[in-house]
Write a structure and sequence with these properties.
alpha/beta, 663 residues, seven-stranded mixed β-sheet, TIM Barrel
Amino acid sequence: MNHLAVPFKLVLVGLVAGLVVGSSGHTRANFSTGECTNAAITMSGSGDDGRAEGRLSYGDGHTSQHAVKAPDVLIEICDWQGGAAGAASVSIDDSCTSCLDILRENGFKGTYYLSCTDQFSTADWDMWRSIYAEGHEIGGHTTSHKSCHILDEATLRWELSSNRKEILTNLGMPEEELSSFAWPSGDSSAASRAIAGEYYVCARGYHCNELEDKNPRDFMNLRSLNTPHYHPAVYDPPDYFQKADEAESLGKWVNYVFHNKCQDDGAISYLAEKDLWVAPVGKVAKYIKERQSSGITDIVRTDSQISCVLQSSLDPRLYNEELTIKVRVGRLDAEAVLVNGNLTSFTGTTDHITFNVQPSGSDDIRVVKSGIPRAGGNDVSEPRQDPNGTILRPLRGLEKGNGAVINIWISGQARLDNLRNHRIKYLFVDVGDTQRNGKIGTPKEQIVAFLRLMESYEKQHGYDFIILPYSEINTYNYDVNHQFRKAFIADYKRLISLGFDGVYVDIEPVRRDQEKDYLELLKNLSAICPEGTILGVYAGSVSDYGDDNEGDNEWQWSLSFYRKVSDVADLICVPGYDFNLPSKADYEASIRNQVRLLSDGGFNSHFMFTVPTHKRQPETIENALSAYNLEVGRHPRHQFIGVCVFAEWTITPPDWDVFRSGT
């Protein structure tokens, strides 16, 4: 009996191995895997055209069942996403909201298990919708928090289904996202686990105090550590720090569990120092099941590329986590990775590379050394390299063009095609959250992977973007002191060294007593920007209260402050939204007034007008462009170089149509 719109039960595929002769007459290797079995296909010798050929062999216990091995090429599905040494999850039971601040500070997402949901108020559900919107996982924990192993089948099914319905209905959550469950008090039986398996991908246990293996013995009773300082001493968990170390060294999965207090003694932040993939429980469980039910087939290696097929047997509507593929490239210096013909970001060295693929059943993968097809045929400048061999993008100067706000997790060639086809030149790239100490929390490997993706795309299509990184800083949430600014500047200097075309500063609001420090920060950033790079800023809207008076709206800038910023910055992005005006006429009049004031001269920088794609009437892209075009056309000496879309991830096809016709 399946209570979901998509199948949850894992179909185990036994090991099937064989050799198939391809249409070219060259031997190709095929196999798929289910339960953990050591098997590999060793590539030896070569055909007349230099292609490696395959024969089936069984491993010695040291080779993953997901690997295809040769003297200088090994393709495998990594045990953990990102190729991490181990995994970690943080979950909070009993509808408690503890640990949110620590998770946010470290850029982690937790799993919150909700029970007694039939007693939630409207305010409770509003709070949980907000937590869910942040990206934290919401899981089931039964309606009444009763020990499930003593319930009869009908009562257990009611506990599971009613709790599940409450969560789905009140959070507006797709069924496939409610995939994780936690046993109340950790109590379960073989019968209750079988029933729960009809509703959930996995269930986290309790009172285990053990690490979970990379291939769990029971997905419906995942092992975890008890909550510190919560039970009588006899139930205390092992040392959380030691277990994190063991998860890393042994390739296992550590599950921290908390209740009404986050008494972690710093253990959650310690995870950030380890080579561990920190992710919600359901996400990790899905990844493992996908890995277990996938295999690499049809491996062919030539002098210019390595190709293979990722075969998977699970429904991608439910099992939608990206698998990390590792390819030991040996002497092949990889220039690009294509999945089903689309460029995909990758990280690595001349020895091996890693990249992510979301399984769709059968996915063609190519690791290409050279000869990437590209439009036109015009040469592009050679990429620079840092001393470690990292590919760096060429630096470019300021020019006219439109822009878009994106993030480094953009994926899929279609989205990049959209930007290019709509003549987007400037990309303002969200590189992830800035930590309280001023440092960017996103790992360098993810940022380099994004730059590699963009470099490959540009070379393929003969199109150059101007790419500026940013991380939004709300001055109410951060203490922008001297140490913060020092770390902030150092990190952005490193981003430029990786190949960004400058920096984009999004610090808001800038209150009157903060203006001096803000200008000093811009000057320090300008000093680290090499010649040819760009210092851009996101501004406040032009003050309604005249040149020198900001009034009581701290989100606005006076014209005199605009002029001071323009003495330092190369590009100022002017917001065209968040005016809180009641009518279309008022909204358009405000936009025209801003454009007029900034077009009257006296500024030493260029401007870009930012239009919204995430707002409701009257703040629509159509109204914003109409007012902007009407006013900017009245000022032939204006310094606007284009229009910026905020944001790429919210824009719809009709929005793109309006943008194309209005720019």
